[in-house]
Request: fold
Amino acid sequence: MRDVASKRDVEERPVVTERVVTLTVNGRSYTLRLDTRVTLLDALRDRLGLVGTKKGCDQGACGACTVHLDGRRVLSCLTLAAQAEDRAITTIEGVSGADGPHPVQQAFMDHDGFQCGFCTPGQIMSAVALMAEGRTGSDEEIREFMSGNLCRCGAYPNIVAAIREATSGGGPDARL
Reply:
C-alpha cells in the first residue's frame, strides 16, 4: 500500500518563518531576509556568494565549513545564520591582508599543505584559530586540535609543518 499524503497532512505543516538578519562578514555588513532555518554556511555561499567556505559533509564531521565567529572557530553548517547576527564573522576570504596572504596561507603554500584543495579553507581557518588559542606547543597538540578537520588526500604531515612554520615565523598574533 502506498503512503500518500492527504490534503489535510499538507495543510497542517508548520509555516516557514523568515526574518531580517544583519550579518557582519569580513568587516562588511549585509542585511538579508532569511528563513530562520538557513545555516550560516548556506547564507555565506548561496546568498552572499562567498564560496571559499566549503560544504563538505553538511553534518559537522569534516571541518570544511569552518569560519570564525567573534574570533572563535565554528562549523558554519551547524550554525544558524540568525545565531550569527550582531557578531563578527570571518571567512577564508577575509583572512589575507592588503599586504598579501596570512602567514598560515603562505605556510600552506610553502609546505604543500593542500593537495586537491577542497579542505584547505577550513584547515586554514582552524589553523589561524589554533594559533590564537595558543594550542601549537607541539606537533601532537596541533594534530589533536586540528583533528576536526579532515583531509581526504592525507596531507596531514604537510599541514602540521605549515602550522609549525606559521607559528614560529609569523607568531601566534600575526594578522589574526
Q: What stands out?
A: The two ends are 60 Å apart (CA to CA). The helical segments are 7-11, 40-47, 103-110, 120-132, 139-145, 156-169. Strands lie at 18-25, 28-35, 66-69, 72-75, 88-90. The chain has six helices and five strands.
